[in-house]
Design goal:
With 355 residues, the chain is of the alpha/beta class. It contains 11 helices and 17 strands. The strands form 4 sheets. It has a 7-stranded mixed β-sheet with strand order 13-12-11-14-15-17-16, with helices on both faces. Strand 5 and strand 6 form a beta hairpin. The relative contact order is 0.07.
Length: 355
Amino acid sequence: MSEAPCLKVPKILGEKAIVLARSLSLFNKDLKIHQVGDCLYIPLVTNPQTSHVEAFERDVPNFEVTTHRFPERVKHPLRIIDVLADELPPHLLAGLPHAIDFVGEIAVIEVPPELESYKEIIGAAILNAHKHVQTVLGKAGAVEGTYRLRAFEVIAGLDTTETVHREYDCVYHVDLAKAYFSPRLSHEHNRVASLVKGGETVIDMFAGVGPFSILIARRCEDVQLFAIDANPDAIGLLKKNISANNVEKKVTPILGDVRDIVKKDLVGVADRVIMNLPERAIEYVDVACEAIKPIGGIMHYYEFTNAPKPREAAKVRLIEVVRETNRSVRKILSTRTVRATAPYTWQVAVDAEIQ
């Protein structure tokens, strides 16, 4: 609610008073007109001057200048297609990217080939439509390599790939060019964190900048997390995020190959392991089984699959690979499709109880 100068008029005179207030550039469009009984309170941007009052006296026979507390209008963000309606040929508007990833003050889009020559215009439109965005990045390649990195091109705004992202009351320093991070996994971070119980030891096998580990540490009392990653830049950002979220006593960052680290220091210590490396997690199931306590524990396994029944395929594959170790799957706790990553390809999560 905001207090503002206004016109108080009988409801029957409301339309005439609103039209006149707009013509005089007095109408406050950020506040909602408020009806009380048979009267309308029409918000104004400032108190009317003498000439304004005279105009109202001529056209609105019964009014009062006063102040009133008004509800504010909910401002819906502009759509990119609306911003670009006069900028692009009509036949190209349908090809505008619908999916925008927002990471802190950065927007990430994939520009279709037919719109390549318009990418700067599209970037400027995103800055116009989303006022919090300072940089628009265009995807310039696929996620690839050991560190799962993607090339980006700055197409509008500040020339940076660094930002601060907020998710579920946690703060993450991110550099999209140096360490993998996806806001599309926000729900998955929250889902897994909600399953962890106090007193658990958790190994985050491919931790990145820490979205699983830090959220779990913030949510749960008396937990111990070992957050491992082979990417030095990711570990550098993870350390910064551990400090920013005040979880130094709960999260231990470790740089290196998870296979070597588990074998050396973490055999049989985990109540729970997180395996968010969908491209290659299947290759590390034996490591996860080695890390889980002898009495058993929980595995959060992720993979990409293009099978006709993706969840069933991922479940069967995990059961078979675990069977090749000295462990077995006691129970599949859940399977879910996390997201589509390409036509007919999905990221799938399998939660399994290992014995």
